Amino acid sequence: MRRLSLWMRAHPAVGDCLLALSLLSIDLLVLLTQATDRHRQPWYVALPLDVAMVAPVAFRRKYPQVTAYVILVLTVPHSALQLGIGSATASCIALYTMVVYVGRRQAALYVVAQLAVAVLQMWAHWAPGGWITLIIIVLIFALCWVLGEFVGARQAYHAEVEARLHLLETERDQAGRIAVAEERGRIARELHDVVAHAVSVIVVQADGASYALRSDPAVAERAVRTISDTGRQALAELRRLLQVLRNEEVTGEPRIPQPTAESLTDLAERVRTAGVPVELSIDGEMTGLPAGVSLGVYRIVQESLTNTLKHAGPGARAQVRVRRTENLVDVEIVDDGAGKARALVPAPDLPGGNGLIGMRERAHLFGGILQAGPCPAGGWRVHATFPVRLDP
Length: 392
Hints:
CATH superfamily of the largest domain: Histidine kinase-like ATPase, C-terminal domain
Number of helices: 12
Shape: rod-shaped
Strand order of the largest sheet: 1-2-3-5-4
Distance between the termini: 58 Å
CATH class of the largest domain: Alpha Beta
GO molecular function, one term: kinase activity
Largest sheet: 5 strands, mixed
Helix content: 55-70%
Keywords: ATP-binding, Kinase, Membrane, Nucleotide-binding, Phosphoprotein, Transferase, Transmembrane, Transmembrane helix, Two-component regulatory system
Order of helices and strands: HHHHHHHHHEHEEHHEE
Protein name: histidine kinase
EC number: 2.7.13.3
Radius of gyration: 39 Å
CATH topology of the largest domain: Heat Shock Protein 90
Number of strands: 5
Strand content: 5-15%
Catalytic activity: ATP + protein L-histidine = ADP + protein N-phospho-L-histidine
């Protein structure tokens, strides 16, 4: 039933056609009940007039003002010949449509025209109790006006809500793009230090190899091997860096050593001190990882635990499991806090443009995959995988 209602709202002309057919059916029933009345109108007069009376109702939303005055003109012969309720009902629908879709001023003029036609018809066929009939007509018109005002106000409210939702969606998309740009800039700054370090190592080892090439070939060979390994890793880092769109030129920022996956124990201890018990499990050696991957593992754990501090609520606990295999580093952070609520409302970005968007960008930058979402029993889970080796 809900699906039918939504479909009818998306196709209002169908509802108007059904309304017109319903009014025509009632007038046809009235015509059939008068089959034995010697004063009834011939069918070849009544039927076309009945159809003409209700047909404009099908176009009331597309041409509201034209439809209303066509109904007003057809009301005169239809009501004079007493062919049914089509004229009265169509007039009420026309007034309601004028109030909702045209405006109060045009609707007021239309009411005056309707009342003038009704008074003229009653004056031509005046009968005892005519004033009561006129009062009833005025009250019905007033009811149609009030109903139109109510529906018009409701439609205006819905239009305003839709406009605000569209604006919020646009702002959210814009905020997402800004967050991605800021996070890319921050990743670029971090990779700058990594690449600069690798190039410095290459330069130092090359100088040493040139001095030891003749006096100590073994030392020179080790230096060349170090240059080769460092250069391959730096090349991989540089190719990742070229994919990052950096729009800001950062100057004057202090250079500090970047944390690595080996610093996770200190991170867990700091979070415990902040009030969230953290169970840390590390399977495998975290040494020897590419600098960018090691930094990415640290940052994702850091941001996930920060989200736990901010959103999981009091009494929450967190588990961090990091496992290194031959080809992958698998990272999983799970807390038992308010995961269901956080599933409905996106987590706000952390300072510097972090958050789910930033973590996903960081994982993708190094060829990894990140998944984040609520656990079935409550809480929140972040799972990321990184390749151990970056393809040059």
